[in-house]
UniProtKB/TrEMBL annotation, chain A:
Entry EC number(s): 6.2.1.64
Entry similarity comment: Belongs to the ubiquitin-activating E1 family. UBA3 subfamily.
Class of the enzyme per the UniProt entry, highest EC level: ligase
Superkingdom of origin: Eukaryota
Catalytic activity: ATP + [NEDD8 protein] + [E1 NEDD8-activating enzyme]-L-cysteine = AMP + diphosphate + [E1 NEDD8-activating enzyme]-S-[NEDD8 protein]-yl-L-cysteine
Keywords of this entry: ATP-binding, Ligase, Nucleotide-binding, Ubl conjugation pathway
Cross-referenced PANTHER family: NEDD8-ACTIVATING ENZYME E1 CATALYTIC SUBUNIT, UBIQUITIN-ACTIVATING ENZYME E1
Pfam families in UniProt: E2_bind, ThiF
Function: Catalytic subunit of the dimeric E1 enzyme, which activates NEDD8.
E2 binding domain location: 355-443
ATP-binding recorded as keyword: yes
Protein name: NEDD8-activating enzyme E1 catalytic subunit
Automatic annotation (TrEMBL), chain B:
Protein name as it appears in the record: E2 NEDD8-conjugating enzyme
Superkingdom field: Eukaryota
Any single Pfam family the record assigns to this protein: UQ_con
Keyword Protease: no
GO terms, molecular function: ATP binding; NEDD8 conjugating enzyme activity
Active site as annotated: 110 (glycyl thioester intermediate)
Pathway: Protein modification; protein neddylation
Region described as Disordered: spans on this chain: 9-28
EC number: 2.3.2.34
Catalytic activity: [E1 NEDD8-activating enzyme]-S-[NEDD8 protein]-yl-L-cysteine + [E2 NEDD8-conjugating enzyme]-L-cysteine = [E1 NEDD8-activating enzyme]-L-cysteine + [E2 NEDD8-conjugating enzyme]-S-[NEDD8-protein]-yl-L-cysteine
Residue ranges of domain UBC core in the record: 28-172
Transmembrane as UniProt keyword: no
Amino acid sequence: MEVNNSSVEHLPQLSKRFGHLRKITERPGPFCHANFSASPENLEFLSTTCKILIIGAGGLGCELLKDVALMGFNDIHVIDMDTIELSNLNRQFLFRKNDIGFSKAERAAAFINARVPTCHVTPHFCKIQDYGEEFYRQFHIIICGLDSVVARRWINGMVLSLVKYDDDGSIEQESVIPIIDGGTEGFKGNARIIIPGLSACIDCTLDLFPPQVTYPLCTLANTPRLPEHCIEYVRVIQWEKENPFKAPLDGDDPQHILWIYEKSLERASQFNISGLSYRLVQGVIKHIIPAVASTNAVIAAACATEAFKVATNCYEFLNNYMVFNDGDGIYTYTYAAERKPDCLACSNIPRSVSIEDPNTTTLEDLIKQLCEDQEFQMKSPGLTTLIDGKSKTLYMSTVKSIEERTKCNLTCSLGELGLKDGQEIMVADPTTPNTIIIKLKYNTNEVEMK
Amino acid sequence: MIKLFSLKQQKKDGDTNSKSGPQKKASAAQLRIQRDINELNLPKTCTTDFPDPDDLLNFKLIICPDEGFYKGGRFVFNFRVGPNYPHEPPKVKCETQVYHPNIDLEGNVCLNILREDWKPVLTINSIVYGLQYLFLEPNPEDPLNKEAADVLQSNRRLFEHNVAKAMRGNYIGSTFFERCLK
Ligand SMILES: [Zn+2]
């Protein structure tokens, strides 16, 4: 898709529309950040260079798009795999009734592009996992308005994998893409900034995400007391047993929900349990907590403001986690979530292992090196790698069925195994609490591929 | 605070149009399961089977109890580890039909750490030990197979007899159990 470069010509119009932003970005002040230099270049950077990605075009996403578009960001991308449903319309205000059934990303982009002509939003109607590093690398800032832990962890891992390190292990700053993550749940919400490799990441703070509510299986099977127990029973046990649509359960398919509703109702009446409704079924199956539009607005505003601060350097940005709750009065506080020194996602800086000649060094030699090297001193390392995005187990001595089928790799040279210069190998060993990553560094450039 | 990007800086090599790039980094779930698998410390009654050694996320655990009601039997459990591991527990199903108070005929297993008591510090090894324990001490208090639980509670000798009969391949009541002797 062609990116709109005409924004510069709109600058006169821009200067009026963005009068308030200019006051902030073109004047120095006592509270400004030390790195800040007041200049028209700040807004120009936002409107001509800065590329921002918004993940999710739902409740938070609509707010975020509106906010960043009105705060001077012009090159905006939005990605969302969902289509618009009737029940979205109360809060996802970029959509109208005749948008139902269409892509959220596409309709949201069209709305903003029509409403804010200086702004160009590029929609991506797909899953975040459909794109690779090449796509995510192009952005200066990524803002997430997601409702799933899996998706958050995925984008967290992606952005962390873009971080480059010098040979002495320090971060190359240009490779860092800040993530601004918003989340809401009813009257509660949070906004946070993750500077990948430098501040706490999603995986560092996984404990903050409440685990999904689960009930003991035997309660579901024998002593249900709540309508939720009946729904979970039908979902976990009956669906698998009867497989009514010969397909995995899809929470967005009304037929599936209806089937679960009817079966749960039968079960509820069998156990004299009341309070079961279609909505409750939907809620339990899709883990929906009723969305509150004003919470979305508050959290999105905080995220957009942080994006603005990060992009212009005008003020210190959030450090680094803001909690908001307006369920009972209004309560908010900010704290610095801490990095976990053993975080699997962000504390795993690849360690270089230098290899004299990949054509003569065998996998067995490499393992020996890991066991004998002062730096590693491993005992029984298990090695895997990724080849063309696919996981490959190179060798693992501790599991018999794997050992038998991978021992043939031991006598192969690294070149024969398809391992390239710079290849990352994941190594698990009883001597380290976590799997570590090593990076092969070949001293000869020529690799004879078999 | 670091200054993240200078104003003039243009992002270099982004490519919007390519649905691209194989993944180059292992996910946190993959790193964690690799450690779990490498450090599996199985009791002598258990073995694992990885149908595809490159796929550490899907495997089978085979338990052959050497004491208790189920001595002499061979029970296969299927493990599926999802992308959200260890935030969420693996999905575990019993593939062998078994007459057991805590395992139903579809292979669902009632083990607290597989659902409500799962914590990310637990490992595959914890689950292995939990499953092994189910065969040593079937628990009639938390039944999934209510008939089996009732028999265990009211008549241990009959329960023992039923288990042995089921493992040889027989009907218990109206349910047929396939032979699963070692
Ligand atoms: Zn981390």
